[in-house]
Amino acid sequence: MRKSPWAGVSLVFFTFVQSSLGLNNGLAVTPQMGWNPYNAFSCTTGQSQYESNANAVVSLGLKALGYDYVNLQVDCGWQGTARNSSGGFTWNTEAIPDGIPALVEFVHSLGLKFGFYSDGGFFACDSVGGTGGFLGSLGFEIEDAATFASWGGDYLKYDNCFSVSSTDFVDFNPPIEIEPHYIAMSNALAATGRPILFSACEWGVQDPARWPASAIANSWRIANDIGPPPSWANLFRIINQLVPITGFAGPGGWNDLDLLEVGNDGLTMAEQQTHFAFWAAAKSPLLISTDLTTISEEALAILTNKGVIALNQDPLGRSIAFKRRYTNDHDVWAGPLADGSMVAVVIEMDDVARSITFDLSDVGLTSATATNVITGAKLGTLTNSYTSAFEAHGSLVLRLSNLVTAPEPTFTFYDAAGEGNILAGGASTRIVNDTITVVGFVGDGGTLEFTDVNGGDSGGTLLLSLDYINADVTESNTDCSNCRVALMSVNNGPAVEVQMPLSGQSWDILFSGYLVSLSGFKPGTTNTILISNPSGFTPDCYRH
Ligand SMILES: *[C@@H]1O[C@H](CO)[C@@H](O)[C@H](O)[C@H]1NC(C)=O
Ligand SMILES: *[C@@H]1O[C@H](CO)[C@@H](O)[C@H](O)[C@H]1NC(C)=O
What we know:
It catalyses: Hydrolysis of terminal, non-reducing alpha-D-galactose residues in alpha-D-galactosides, including galactose oligosaccharides, galactomannans and galactolipids. Pfam families: Melibiase_2, Melibiase_C. The chain is of the alpha/beta class. The protein folds into 3 domains: 280 residues, TIM Barrel (Alpha-Beta Barrel); 85 residues, Immunoglobulin-like (Sandwich), CATH 2.60.40.1180; 122 residues, Jelly Rolls (Sandwich), CATH 2.60.120. The chain contains 9 helices and 28 strands. The protein has an 8-stranded parallel sheet with strand order 8-7-6-5-4-3-2-9. Strands 10-11-12-17-14-15 form a 6-stranded antiparallel sheet, covered by helices on one side. Strands 19-22-27-24-25 form a 5-stranded antiparallel sheet. A hairpin with a 5-residue loop joins strand 20 and strand 21. Helix 4 crosses helix 5 and helix 7 runs parallel beside helix 8. The protein is globular and about 80 Å long. The structure holds 2-acetamido-2-deoxy-beta-D-glucopyranose (2 copies). One 2-acetamido-2-deoxy-beta-D-glucopyranose binds next to loops.
């Protein structure tokens, strides 16, 4: 007989449910939506591509889709390489022969808003490895904001190339604070008196979600670029980086997961669907970034799905949060919606088409009435679980109402640094603050063994709740980008791989309540749980 999965042992983590109030400029009350050329054209977009894509935003029905803030943005490459004789911003006359004011007027004439792009550095980003010399706005914030406003700008995406020096192209670990660059431009935009949505694009460096970013920008990029070229590995890296900051998104200030890759090569259609639905439910800005003049019917169907768009534009403005990871199998994320219903997103993580059982207890429910958001199918009442077919890296997105909540599980916590546990091979305790001591250097030879763990009256399979710290941020795609793996073994039985995402960008922020089921417990209090990883560090462990 298996023990009830809710009677269990637990490793404790803390969850932050801090919510920002957003930049107080009345904009981006719901996440902005629009079109940006970068993922399709890099820094080489010309006037005719801007014009034809602006026309397509209208003719394909995207503008009419209830997007609150449809805009057409320019991106890198639109700028000149030298200021004019009075220090004013200039445009690239080869790329934009009719001039920026005329392009802005054209976009406005279609009923679209116009988005500018600049950079909080000595030069802007370019596509030729940092030798393009496109103008940046560092030190010219007030003048440039005034110029963009006078040209009719409604939006500014603000990048971060050459922010340290005129020779340091992209620096993910800058020796200076980046935040003042963004505060300066935010203030300069406010001073223009024109409503200009401010989109901070500094790739998640120095954790902008935790700046008083809420008061600085309407959205902030949380991670390095999704591409081009896009890949599932990029999506996984960004998803893991979102885990600790979902609570910081709210009306006026959003976590920006990056421009969309729907319609571009590099992702399967199932992956593109998952990408769009996840971005929507995480309340990321939805910025189409493909050539709309050649988009396929299939990709357009993904981008125009009204049910998915409604998740993004839901007036409550709460992101989905990480609920459960079945390592290399499936992820479960969920969050509340304005009408009292809940959205749940289940992602196939093993790259295999198969059926997956979604356990409603993973989102705190025993039953609910469900609609499949992507297909629109009404699924009736689901009780305890729902099994359905998934494509490889596909997803199930459910809108759940008539929620019947499950009883909260209770856990007994064991401190990693507690007496009786066995630290070996270099594993050692680290004091985080007055109340928290963790065990670090576990893995790569180090091991942590919890002893005297209570298996209850009948042993078997128990649910554990782990609290850990993992601030191992990476901008690149490793095996486990922005996550760390622990192998967990009960009573020296088979090791179970457990993959834990980031808990924050510094080593003093806990993730609380990572759930994992382990088998092999004996009745009584003589069980052990060994945590190890022969090929890399596990997270720092606080308790379980
Ligand atoms: C320089 O650029 C600014 C901003 O566009 C403009 O207001 C000013 O008239 C330009 N000055 C000259 C001399 O072209
Ligand atoms: C210790 O750190 C945890 C996790 O960041 C935090 O929740 C807690 O408030 C801190 N306690 C003290 C006393 O600083």
